Amino acid sequence: MNPPTEFIVLPSGLLAHIALPLGVLLRKRGNLHCVLECQGGACSLIGDALRSRGIQLMRMMDRVYFAVDLHGKMAGCEEFFDSIGAAYYELVDSDRNTRCANLLMELALQSTTSDLVGSVLDFGCGPGLVALGVQHLCGAIVGYDASAAMRELSHSNGLRILNCLAEVESGAFDCIIAVYVLHFGLSDECCSELYRVSKLGASLLGNCHKSVGLELLVGKLTTAGFSVREVDSCRMEFGPILMASKP
User: Fold this and answer.
1) Last residue within a domain, chosen from 91, 125, 160
2) What distance in Å separates the CA atoms of residue 165 and residue 187, rounded to the nearest whole number?
3) Cβ atoms 80, 215 nearer than 8 A
4) What is the radius of gyration, based on Cα positions, of the chain?
5) In whole angstroms, what is the distance from residue 34 CA to residue 46 CA?
6) Rounded to the nearest 5°, which phi and psi values hold at 235?
7) Same-domain check for residues 70 and 156
8) pLDDT tens per residue across span 116-166
9) Which of 55, 75, 91 is the last residue of a domain?
10) Reduced to 3 states, what is the DSSP secondary structure of residue 199?
């Protein structure tokens, strides 16, 4: 039985400084980042080579690693998700993602007297299956993903999609959910946009896989204007759950 394929996302400029072992395919190369497809023990060999340059590989999905420098800086997420397209389904546990989304929606429902959460944004929606799986709990739900390939998949699966948050009017959403997204990191600009499109009293709910970047994320959301707390009882299966409200 062949070992599973693994992926590495790293700055394109590093390719000139590391020797790619056998079993590595350059899946996509952009000006800033590239995606490597690895078989066998090739991923470990590349990891060893990167460590000698002060760069670590951090596992952000079951079989996907991102290069992280000494300052904790990681990038290339959009390029990665654009490169894998429909192979996304093979790389994630869709059932676990849906369970996480249902938990987030249950938490959102606790702050409303209605049987439904009103207008919901699935931030980082991937191919849209999670949003479609919880749409019965929403008055309306739309998706957004930074990856054009993921937006296209979502649209083909029947989810209404936003191409960018800037096209949304201020105070549009009662709730924002982020399923296995927050650990990839949010920019200051993104946090500000999420705050802008939230209604007063709205909640942003998301899990932070393996607590990656948790402290930094809380700081950014707080700076954007959110009041942030952690739902400790949900820590085990999905990582800590953050609930950020717009006061």
Assistant:
1) 91
2) 13
3) no
4) 18
5) 14
6) -65, -35
7) no
8) 999 999 999 999 999 999 999 999 999 999 999 999 999 999 999 999 999
9) 91
10) strand
Quote the DSSP letter at residue 72.
Answer: -
Q: Are 161 and 144 in contact (CB under 8 A)?
A: yes
First to last CA, the chain: 54
**What average pLDDT score do residues 158-175 get?**
97
Strand partners, 245: 203, 227
Q: How many CB atoms lie within 10 A of CB 177?
A: 30
**Measured in whole angstroms, how far is the alpha carbon of residue 177 from the centre of its chain?**
11
Whether 208 and 127 share a structural domain: yes
- pLDDT tens sequence across 20-53: 998 899 988 888 889 999 988 899 999 999 998 8
Total number of domains constituting the chain: 2
Amino acid 8 reads: I
Find the CATH number of the domain harbouring 130.
Answer: 3.40.50.150
Same domain flag for 67 and 184: no
Whether 78 and 192 share a structural domain: no
pTM as predicted: 0.89
Q: Which two tokens stand for residue 80?
A: 């990665």
Residue 76 near residue 15 (C-beta atoms within 8 A): no
147 and 77 in a common domain? no
Which domain covers residue 83, as residue numbers?
Answer: 6-91
